[in-house]
Design brief:
Distance between the termini of chain B: 42 Å
Protein name (chain A): Proteasome subunit beta
Order of helices and strands of chain B: EEEEEEHHEEEEHHEE
Largest sheet of chain B: 5 strands, antiparallel
Oligomer: heterodimer
Function (chain A): Non-catalytic component of the proteasome.
Number of domains of chain A: 1
Shape of chain B: globular
Keywords (chain A): Cytoplasm, Nucleus, Proteasome
Helix content of chain B: 25-40%
CATH topology of chain B: Glutamine Phosphoribosylpyrophosphate, subunit 1, domain 1
CATH topology of chain A: Glutamine Phosphoribosylpyrophosphate, subunit 1, domain 1
Strand content of chain B: 25-35%
Helix content of chain A: 25-40%
CATH architecture of chain A: 4-Layer Sandwich
Radius of gyration of chain A: 19 Å
Structural class of chain B: alpha+beta
Family (chain A): Belongs to the peptidase T1B family.
Distance between the termini of chain A: 48 Å
Largest interface: A-B, 20 and 22 residues
Shape of chain A: globular
CATH architecture of chain B: 4-Layer Sandwich
CATH superfamily of chain A: Aminohydrolase, N-terminal nucleophile (Ntn) domain
Strand content of chain A: 25-35%
Number of strands of chain A: 13
Number of helices of chain B: 4
Number of strands of chain B: 12
InterPro entries (chain A): Ntn_hydrolases_N, Proteasome_alpha, Proteasome_beta4, Proteasome_bsu_CS, Proteasome_sua/b, Proteasome_suB-type
Chain lengths: 232, 223
């Protein structure tokens, strides 16, 4: 067993981002993530952009190690640039980018040197919507709605209940806000500074960060042990 | 005391069950479409079945990323085979190729549990069943994956295949008709879904016979 000090591999993550939630809607894909960057349980950074547009047709969201995500962004920049240099009018769509990410992540796990992320890739090209996920060991799939980390536990049941093919933009944002609110209440590393972004055939839009309205005045929030017999 | 931190494993078990039944002139290959990790369901609609050649279909469960890599390796090798021989690979040939491909990674295995079904050169149904490192056997029917412990004894009971020790060797193909075999597959998946949490959502059934390939789906319990 190699010593941690000698290691050139990521043995555990340092600065991490929490859940990403994304859905298909009528005109494309909507994606949401908060802007927290945790150093263990310390909230170290508060303005980390964890959703980025990739090429002309895709959005990439990441949870997990922030530096590995930034490395992945460098890989993708190079990929898009070299593809662009053919100057043949073709461009990589979300399906191609997702497949590329899938191979990068799996390849790194094969070298026992993983990129410590769960990635969400959404996009639309020629009216074809696409939404998929990859994680640090290369597990990948497509679905109508996806969520990483605690989001898979807390928000996918909501999405399975309420998601449908013809969500309008307003309904989609409302649904994502509902998911992010649940995460904010229940995920200790979630912060109340959230970014939502959309991608349609017209291109990607990253909306400015916003906060969710919260309500903490429930009596059992203020005094959680009241009525619990035998507790102080 | 050292700090306890997040750790990782290069493997995961994404669950799922695969079944194949060979008949005199057909083969049925089936797998559920649930993909799980631990107590989580990742997606309810993921196909575990891959068509490797005209007459060779593989159903695989285990670790999804390895399964995907295995499918890609096999289809790349099959493409080269087509260029070199100008024909589709036979099912028994694909069976040997699958075994070699798995054994090639003997010391960092593909965590994949496969059944390969198809038609042999005489048009007879054939089923090959594997372990993760490539040992394989031709059988009349088989099940692999998380629900296999529930499915195999049921198939044994219903199909009563002749012992492989009999001399002269008896054909391992099942005596069922094609429709009976499809019904049996639906029954075993409905049953496995009752007790195996990693099996459910939907079963995808591929039927191969002289007239080609056909697909059927049946909904399963989603809990």
């Amino acid at each position: 067993m190699e010593r941690v000090a000698d290691s050139q591999r990521t043995l555990y993550p340092y600065v991490t981002g929490t859940s990403v939630v994304a859905i298909k809607y009528k005109d494309g894909i909507l994606m949401a993530a908060d802007m927290g960057g945790s150093y263990g349980s310390t909230l170290r950074y508060k303005s980390v952009e964890r959703i980025k547009p990739i090429g002309k047709h895709s959005l990439l969201g990441a949870s997990g190690e922030i530096s590995d995500f930034q490395e992945i962004l460098r890989y993708l920049d190079e990929l898009i640039l070299y593809d662009n240099m053919w100057d043949d009018g073709n461009s990589l769509g979300p399906k191609e980018v997702h497949n590329y990410l899938t191979r990068v992540m799996y390849n790194r796990r094969n070298k026992f040197n993983p990129l410590w992320n769960a990635l969400v890739l959404g996009g639309i090209k020629n009216g074809q919507k696409y939404l998929g996920m990859v994680n640090m060991i290369g597990i990948n799939f497509e679905d109508n709605h996806v969520a990483t980390g605690l989001g898979n536990h807390l928000t996918r049941p909501i999405l399975r209940d309420e998601w449908h093919e013809n969500l309008t933009f307003e309904e989609g944002v409302k649904l994502l806000e509902k998911c992010m609110r649940v995460l904010l209440y229940r995920d200790r590393s979630a912060v109340n500074k959230i970014q939502i972004s959309k991608i349609t055939d017209e291109g990607a839009t990253l909306f400015p960060p916003f906060s969710l309205k919260t309500y903490w005045e429930f009596s059992s929030f203020k005094n959680p042990t009241a009525g619990a017999e035998g507790s102080w | 005391m050292t700090k306890k931190h997040a750790n990782w494993s290069p493997y995961d078990n994404n669950g799922g069950s695969c079944v194949a039944i060979a008949g005199a002139d057909y083969c049925v290959i089936a797998a559920d479409t649930r993909m799980s990790t631990g107590y989580n369901i990742l997606t309810r609609d993921y196909s575990k079945i891959s068509q490797l050649a005209d007459k060779a279909v593989m159903a695989s469960s285990g670790f999804q990323a390895d399964v995907k890599a295995l499918q890609k390796a096999l289809s790349a090798k099959h493409l080269i085979y087509q260029h070199q021989h100008n024909k589709q690979m036979s099912c028994p040939a694909m069976a040997q190729l699958l075994s070699n491909t798995l054994y090639y990674k003997r010391f960092f295995p593909y965590y994949a549990f496969n059944v390969l079904g198809g038609l042999d050169n005489e048009g007879k149904g054939c089923v090959f069943t594997y372990d993760a490192v490539g040992s394989y056997e031709r059988v009349g029917y088989s099940a692999q994956g998380s629900g296999s412990t529930l499915i195999i004894p049921f198939l044994d009971n219903q199909l009563k295949s002749p012992s492989p020790l009999l001399l002269p060797a008896k054909d391992a193909v099942t005596p069922l008709s094609e429709t009976e075999a499809i019904d049996l597959v639906k029954t075993v998946f409905a049953s496995a879904t009752e007790r195996d949490i990693y099996t459910g959502d939907k079963v995808e059934i591929v039927i191969l016979n002289a007239s080609g390939m056909r697909r059927e789906y049946m909904e399963l319990r989603k809990d």
